[in-house]
């Protein structure tokens, strides 16, 4: 099978909405939990919902962690929600745990007086010109569901923020690696534009 985006299946979260959004855009996808099959893909999406340590353990147990690190040097990777959080060095949810370390920083509970989890539509404040936001207006609204967020060690890796009391990291990029704390596959036309832009990176 040629020309596809691998959707990483590591047992956390509903992959169907991501696959459906990509299919709607005419982008080929292939769901896999096999590290070797990531090598054959043009691009990789790492989705996920749930707890950081459980997800990190599943990636380690299957060898997907080291394979994702290798592939990050070669092709575009997009982490969504928990998938974005796993791109960072550590997470403190439940217990302190190592992530993939592809983006410097940590994941911790959102420090806000607002209700958690942060659920619903919120505006993006774009910065640092990420190619996956091409064609999107600053202030575009996207859909979030999370209680933990990234605290980036290097602000140059932050491509969007949102306000939820404090300003929190909404998207990141470093080299071939991209992350969205929100769900582009659940964010209507604007989310589809982000996935379309990601799909264009490997063409």
Describe this structure in words.
The chain has 203 residues and is of the alpha/beta class. It has six helices and 14 strands. The strands form three sheets. It has an eight-stranded mixed beta sheet with strand order 2-1-3-4-14-13-12-9. The protein starts with a strand and ends with a helix.
Describe the secondary structure blueprint for this structure.
Elements: E1 5-8, H1 16-24, E2 29-32, H2 35-38, E3 43-46, H3 52-62, H4 64-71, E4 77-80, H5 82-85, E5 88-91, E6 97-98, E7 103-109, E8 118-123, E9 125-126, E10 141-146, E11 148-152, E12 158-163, E13 167-174, E14 177-180, H6 188-200
Parallel strand pairs: 1-2, 1-3, 3-4, 4-14, 5-7
Antiparallel strand pairs: 5-6, 7-11, 8-10, 9-12, 12-13, 13-14
Average pLDDT, rounded to a whole number, is 95
Q: What is the number of E strands? A: 14
Radius of gyration: 15 Å
Distance between the termini: 16 Å
Give the biggest sheet.
8 strands, mixed
Tell the overall outline: globular
In percent, how helical is the residue content? 10-25%
What is the N-to-C order of secondary-structure elements (H for helix, E for strand)?
Answer: EHEHEHHEHEEEEEEEEEEH
Which key terms come to mind for this protein?
203 residues; alpha/beta; eight-stranded mixed β-sheet; four-stranded mixed β-sheet; 14 strands; 33% strand
Quick structural overview:
It is built from six helices and 14 strands.
């Amino acid at each position: 099978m040629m020309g596809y985006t691998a959707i990483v299946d590591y047992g956390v979260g509903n992959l169907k909405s991501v696959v459906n959004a990509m299919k709607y855009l005419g982008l080929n996808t292939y769901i896999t939990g096999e590290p070797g099959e990531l090598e054959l893909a043009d691009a990789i999406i790492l989705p996920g919902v749930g707890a950081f340590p459980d997800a990190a353990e599943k990636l380690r147990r299957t060898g997907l962690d080291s394979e994702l690190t290798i592939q990050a040097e070669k092709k575009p990777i997009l982490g969504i929600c928990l998938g974005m959080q796993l791109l960072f060095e550590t997470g403190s949810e439940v217990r302190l745990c190592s992530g993939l370390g592809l983006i410097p920083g940590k994941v911790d509970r959102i420090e806000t007086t607002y209700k958690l989890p942060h659920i619903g539509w919120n505006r993006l404040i774009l910065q640092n010109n990420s190619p996956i936001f091409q064609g999107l207006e600053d202030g575009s609204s996207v859909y979030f569901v999370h209680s933990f967020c990234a605290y980036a060690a290097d602000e140059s890796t932050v491509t969007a923020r949102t306000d939820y009391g404090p300003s929190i990291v909404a998207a990141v990029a470093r080299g071939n690696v991209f992350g969205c704390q929100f769900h582009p596959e659940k964010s209507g036309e604007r989310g589809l534009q982000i996935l379309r832009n990601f799909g264009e990176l490997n063409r």
